[in-house]
Design goal:
Keywords: Membrane, Signal, Transmembrane, Transmembrane helix. Helices cover 48% and strands 13% of the residues. The protein has helices at 2-23, 40-57, 74-85, 121-137, 141-160, 178-203, 211-216, and strands spanning 31-33, 60-66, 95-101, 106-112, 244-252. Strands 1-2-3-4-5 form a 5-stranded mixed beta sheet, sandwiched between helices. Strand 1, helix 2 and strand 2 form a beta-alpha-beta unit. The longest helix is centred in the C-terminal third of the chain and has 26 residues, at 178-203.
Length: 253
């Protein structure tokens, strides 16, 4: 009976492992925007940065966005993607994976074993806090990805003694609390309301009808450009079979 239970347990584990492997999508390049949250220009800028880094140092950086983890853990998902795709050069294990789970609002940066010496967990965490999380909290995913990956690329390039000449990344931002952001949005509204009241008194009529125009604008553009998730350019020759060291940093935003 005990042997039978062990056999069933082993079969379940094997089935779960195979199913997990089957759920991993095929890589489409350095930028794998499966959640379709990037615009074309930003995607191409990130693609160009990753390509230049590989050409000059051999290191491979990859961005992945997923709509949802479907109940999984972001660290486990990042590790499975890293190992299955083989990010980085075989034997050098010089890969980097940035994974953003949109629904869960969680980010993870996985570092290959060969880069852990120059990108230890503490340093990756600092990059996350200064270059990634603040932009994500403001809803600017494009700047978050480009800024964070550029900061990582600069560390790798400096260690290799090379210079990267691509598009300048966004500057780091200070991480602000939700309370401060909320007050920042309320104060302008109070000022506008006071202006409307003053205008109404001077003209002898109410100025409140102008309030929606000040708050929401008389017109504008909504949404983002639509395109299917995937890569943003040619020149991708596949990954080299690198391994993850299990290091990195992540968290919610």
């Amino acid at each position: 009976m005990v042997r039978y239970i062990r056999f069933i347990s082993l079969a379940i584990l094997i089935y779960a492992s195979v199913s997990a492997q089957q759920n991993i999508p095929e890589p489409r390049g350095y930028v794998n925007d499966f959640a379709s949250v990037l615009n074309v220009v930003s995607g191409r800028n990130i693609e160009a940065l990753c390509r230049e880094l590989e050409q000059k140092t051999g290191a491979q950086m990859v961005l992945v966005t997923l709509s949802s983890l479907n109940g999984g853990e972001i660290h486990d998902t990042a590790s499975r993607l890293f190992e299955t795709w083989g990010i980085g050069q075989k034997g050098k294990d010089n890969g980097v994976l940035m994974l953003d789970a949109i629904e869960e609002r969680r980010i993870w940066i996985e570092i290959g074993y060969g880069l852990e010496g120059i990108l230890p967990d503490g340093r990756v965490g600092e990059i996350r806090d200064r270059y990634v999380i603040p932009y994500l909290q403001e809803g600017d995913r494009s700047s978050a990805y480009l800024s964070g990956l550029a900061a990582i690329a600069s560390v790798i390039a400096a260690d290799a003694g090379v210079e990267l000449t691509g598009t300048a990344p966004p500057a780091p931002m200070r991480r602000t609390s939700r309370t401060n952001r909320g007050l920042g949005g309320i104060i302008p509204i109070i000022v506008i309301m006071a202006m409307m009241a003053l205008m109404g008194r001077r003209r002898g009529a109410s100025g409140w009808w102008l309030l929606p125009l000040f708050l929401f604008g008389g017109g504008g553009f909504g949404g983002r450009g639509g395109f299917g998730g995937g890569s943003f350019g040619g020149g991708f020759g596949g990954f080299g079979g690198g391994l993850s060291g299990g290091g990195g940093a992540g968290g919610g935003y």
